[in-house]
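Re-running Metallothionein to confirm reproducibility after the cluster update. Everything else is unchanged from the original entry.
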Amino acid sequence: MASCEVCGNDYRLSFEVHAMGAVHVFDSFECAIHALAPVCERCGVKVVGHGVEADGTFFCCASCARMHGKPGSVSQLVDHAGRAPDER
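Result of re-run:
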């Protein structure tokens, strides 16, 4: 068994995540997200899904990226969340 690096729980089903040359041990995806997920530059939420990266800055969605005022590529971003397929 290995101890989670976030909460310290010693769990028989702990797992390793190899990221950017480091090995991390967690007991849950919740702890892995807490430790490794990027944070939206505008609203501060943890980016669990794909999110948006613009000019090296992470955002949770296209709306936050646009509101943050990142130049260039961000103005072309489209957020399809909540739209019907024919509305895209």
